[in-house]
Amino acid sequence: MESSQPWAIDYFEEKFIKPDPWKYFTSPFEQTKYQRQLDIVNDRYPDPQKILEIGGAEGAQTLLLAGQFPKAKIISVEISSHAFRRAKDNLKQYADRIDLVNADIVEYRARLEANCYDVVLWCESIYYLGGRLPLTDIYDLLGGIMSKLKAGGLLIMANTVNLPEAIPESAVTIRPLIDCYYVILSSLTAPVSKSTYVEEKLGKMYEYQIWVFKK
After folding, report:
1. pLDDT at 165 over 60
2. Which pLDDT value is given to residue 8?
3. Rounded to the nearest 10 degrees, what angle do helices 60-68 and 28-44 cross at?
């Protein structure tokens, strides 16, 4: 299966034919990255009532969110139908407070209520959208997502930087592009922190950044 548009739905459907293609459930690298983001929520907004997760995949981070914030209602948006179906199975114990949505955030954001969410978690997917959309649309998208936060709410993002050339995502994770998203967000809202980590996954070293913005 080949995508008619780079990084569009076909790419993710193919990726998620097999379960957990990026080892989100089993990799200490991924689990540590998730927990760092949850620690930020716990430190800066310790009792969130409503959380939006963009790019929930099969629910690895969603499970951690549900366990750590038992009072929170979580909406998780995922583009792949394969990942969505597995997430429903993985998260069925929390079905009373997790709404799973199988949709492209570019299209679905208009259906999200404004000024509604305490926290938005957006992990490892903005660069895919940057590979699909012109910069003006990215600016509008980021502004639209910020509008969904309550006053004082947090946007937390994790993004890999400079993936090796052998990995398809290397083209959309080059540092100037990642820096561009950060600059756009900083023009839309108040940056709180930007942390960089270089850690090992499956025998290779990878860099990622975690950003925090406050509305």
Report:
1. yes
2. 85
3. 40
User: Is residue 172 within 8 Å of residue 7, measured between CB atoms?
Assistant: yes
Provide the 10 A C-beta neighbour count for residue 26: 11
Number of neighbouring beta carbons within 10 Å of residue 29: 20
Residue 98 CA to residue 211 CA, distance in Å, equals 24
E-only strand ranges, the chain: 50-54, 73-78, 98-102, 117-123, 149-161, 190-201, 204-214
Its CATH class, for the domain covering 9-214, is alpha beta
Kindly report the pTM of this predicted structure.
0.95
- Asked whether the beta carbons of 15 and 80 are under 8 A apart, the reply is yes
Q: Mean pLDDT in the chain?
A: 95
Look-up of token digits 């903005």 = 126
SS3 of 97-130: CEEEEECCHHHHHHHCCCCCEEEEEEECCHHHHH
| Predicted confidence (pLDDT) at residue 1 exceeds the cutoff of 60 | no
